[in-house]
Design a protein that fits this description.
This protein is mainly alpha-helical. The protein is 54% helix and 0% strand. Helix 2 packs across helix 3.
Length: 70
Amino acid sequence: MKLSDWLDKQGISIRDLGKQTKISSSQIWRIANFESWPSRDVAVTLIEATNAEVTADDLFNIPKRMRKVA
């Protein structure tokens, strides 16, 4: 699930997620809109904050057809 979709689903603003995770809202906006990629630590923080509803593949916009199937 895209981060922007998760935020909408949860009714959480970028600003609120930023406060919760201590990641700047501008950085979250850029990540949610695929204008920048998160560092490993930021990705882990966002995955944990979303209870893994948003995955690393989602954060890096990896198409489902290219994702490894376990």
